[in-house]
Design goal:
Blueprint lengths: L8 H6 L19 H21 L3 H15 L27 E6 L3 E3 L14 H6 L1 H4 L7 E4 L7 E3 L7 H5 L7 H10 L4 E2 L2 E4 L6 H17 L4 E5 L2
Helix pairs in contact: 2-3
Amino acid sequence: MTGANHESFEDFRKSFSYGSRSNLDFKFLKSMSDDDAADVFERILAALSTAYDTGDVDPLVRVATESQIAGYAPKPGATPPHVYDDAPFSPTPKPANGSAIGLVTSSGHFVAGDDPEPFGIPDMSQAEATNRIDQFLAETPVLSSIPSHTSRDRLRVRHGGYNIASALVDPNVCFPIDRLREAASDGRIAGVTDTFFSFPGATAQGRLRRELPAWLDRFSEEQADAILLVPV
């Protein structure tokens, strides 16, 4: 129903993507049809009702995750948004247990005291980053250098393109600093580079490509045998 005091279901589902109900975990609803979005809500509510009785929330999480996958999947017959005929990757020169591994993520992590201060704003909140997403998408990205020995309590994260709640609880979900150090300690890799890197991936792709040559020079300085790339 539409009217002065009502909104359509289309407006409702779109409001989760940088709208009045902004929730970056569910912004995929904007790209769904009304019928598909309604099915998502129906499945989530059904799983929630079952969780009341069983106390098991895993099916609820599974429904939400499956819905995200469906929401971001290309429509049948549609051309995928990015198609690469080849890949600029090279075979690793050594086995993993003989390789020093670097890390580059688009998660938006940085070290406390080394805030990249987007748009010259110190201590920008996550909420403001989300509100400024259009500016980030047109801006040159800033690469943050993060010493690989940095403790978790010194890590900070800001990114207007995804819900950082899980990254705040455990940075390893998108910046696997502890997992790489554990792999080195266990001998599964030879070691890690002195410095890891991160930037907010919601950024101008053309400007990102212009930054890459200088970034690659910086990565090369770390003398990594392989680099783990973690997109967000």
